[in-house]
Amino acid sequence: MLGLALSKLTDKEWWIEIPPDDPPDARLLRIDQNPGGNIIQQYNIEIVDWERNVDDIMTVIGKKCERAYSNYLLLVNARSGKLLNFNRVINEMKTLRSPFLEVWIVAFIRPGDIKVVRVAPAQPFVDLTRADFLQARKQRGFAKRGTRSTSSEFEDRGLVFMPIPRGD
Question: Which residues contact 163 (CB under 8 A, 6 or more apart)?
Fold first, then answer.
């Protein structure tokens, strides 16, 4: 959801990668193609759920903020079914010492209607609709899992962008 929301917000393609080892829970990636060379933007993501058994979302966020994270985004899945006041969370985040670069909340409003809100350090938000999900399904895969082989045959893997080192 975060990758789709950022793609919609910035009009640039973002990918989510699930690494084989935890931490991080996930990685957010984007290739920035510039005339001076390609730059891979990468952020580690820590994911936490706000469930029914916890009354306040700030309890969940506060516990995560007690630990040390470097170059991480925090993604909170608001699945408690409880009322969520984004303005209150934003104001409380201003007083909380957070080790995260950004804190995002994904709130499921109803099927096909999801709100993704950055509560720290600022407040852009994105409404994702069923049309956005259908459009995202058409996106071509960023990476394809391959296998090692002793064969010398080549297989077309499509267009691949790789950073080219500068010659200075």
Answer: 37, 38, 39, 40
